[in-house]
Amino acid sequence: MDRGIKHILEFFAKCLPSIRSGLIGILLFFASIIQAQEGQNWTKENIEFSGYLKYLNTSTFQDFDAILNDNLLHNRLKLKVYLDDHFTTAIEIRNRIFWGNTIQLTPGYATFIDSDNQDIDLSINIIDRPALLFHSKIDRIYIDYHSDKWQLTLGRQRINWGKNLAWNPNDLFNTYNFFDFDYEERPGADALRVQYFISGNSSIETAINYTNEWADNTIAIKYNFHYFNYDFQVLAAKYLKDYTFGIGWEGAIKNMGIKGEFSYFFPQERTNVTDDVLVGTVSLDYYFKNGISVNAAALFNSGGIKNSNSFDPSQFNNVALSAKNIMPNRWSYFLQASKSLTPAIGTSLSTIYAYELKGIYMMPQFSYSISQNWDFDTIAQLFYGKQDESFSNIQNSVYLRFRWSF
After folding, report:
1. Cβ atoms within 10 A of the Cβ of 338, count?
2. The whole model's pTM is what?
3. What is the CATH number of the domain that holds 134?
4. Residue 384 CB neighbour total at 10 angstroms
5. In DSSP terms, which residues pair with 143 in a beta bridge?
6. Are 222 and 206 in contact (CB under 8 A)?
């Protein structure tokens, strides 16, 4: 069984790079069909084409002696085709143009922007100069079969097994970075995913991803069920070079929501029980009558740093994480408060405290819906921590973002 799946994924891996150059043309071709045949029923009912264009300006500073200014033009194109009642295919392309101080000061900047690098390379640097980078990547391309009881998906896809807002130790295939707020879609995985729906409240799901080194991939199975007004999941996996068992749940205590995820990792070549790692998080969320919503969570990582003499913000921002190492330290705490001031204006404040690192991260956000297709956000990321025996502000970034959706 594993060998057959391996051959399917290897065939898929060989095919995708050979057609990469034509995929953008195919996407634009379908877009032209949609506009040329807008009056035809099949096209309108079976083809979806959408996307957005965002501009993000970033100012980074510690004090006001020096300010780094960076710019990002971010475009996403999404095409989904419903071939018939059972088959669906989709492709999504992420295009980004970077320019500013950081790219000029960072040799080989292109190697740092893809935190979810895949062994199947579907990205290209159209322009890679010391002051300008134009990067394009296909981060979704899959075909999906679904019936009443079965769903099979092959290709680059999002496999979301997490339940919590900030940290997801059950999310084995594409762990995401909470600090990367501009990547709403989150990373995908080149995988084969099979789901069998036993009933409305229970299902079995298994997935396997493709890697060049077969020993470094992930093979996992998950069982979902409902019991005593709670949704549970249990999973077992070969996760990279570890074996993993996990459990997650979601429910409520009176009017308060509660979610939890725990994953236990132990090496395939185990020499000592101290090599095992337990990662777990529990979160609570509550909605007040005045419209304020609060989410609080705690994360434990037994393999994390126990002591640190200084706090380094680079340990958090733009770092490829894993389910086994979501935070670099042992104990972390999260608190987020959100409120909609009007139907068009929203505010939130997120805070993370890394206990052993003596570091605090804060992210206030203000959003304004200008019109149906236009949005504006201003976001700040503020880092405070202990350095040279003193606790102080270490780094700040302020973002201004405009988004046009189509």
Report:
1. 16
2. 0.86
3. 2.40.160.10
4. 19
5. 89, 154
6. yes
